[in-house]
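discrete fold record:
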Amino acid sequence: MWPMLYPILIIIGSNILYNVCTKSTPGEVNAFAALSVTYLIAAIVCFVTFVITAKGRNNFTEFGKTNWTTFVLGVVIVGLELGYILAYRNGWAMNTVSVTANIALAVALIIVAAVFYKETITLKQIAGIVLCGGGLVLINL
């Protein structure tokens, strides 16, 4: 049970802090300046953690194992962060922006999974999409 639970707890805790920090980013700072500092700190944390966890292995060969997804993910993450910063700066409330984005994301991923990964869309998922649509309307009234 724990291997299934702790990643979700990390996601939840990180997302709470993520939204607090993103909403608290000063409005007068250029978003890309803030993101540059953010990613510098993230890169340092990742590199130090990588060195610590890659015990006894040739650390630098690991970088050669990456592919295009690593580079695209870097660009995509900037878009994700920028989107949240801009959403908060443009008046979205913390209690609706994440829920709205995540529900819309979940619906979109159901479609992406069906089209690109041949996963089936079940009646439960369709019912969930309808309920989520209703929830989005109610949350954003």
Observations:
- Helices lie at 2-24, 31-53, 68-89, 94-117, 123-139.
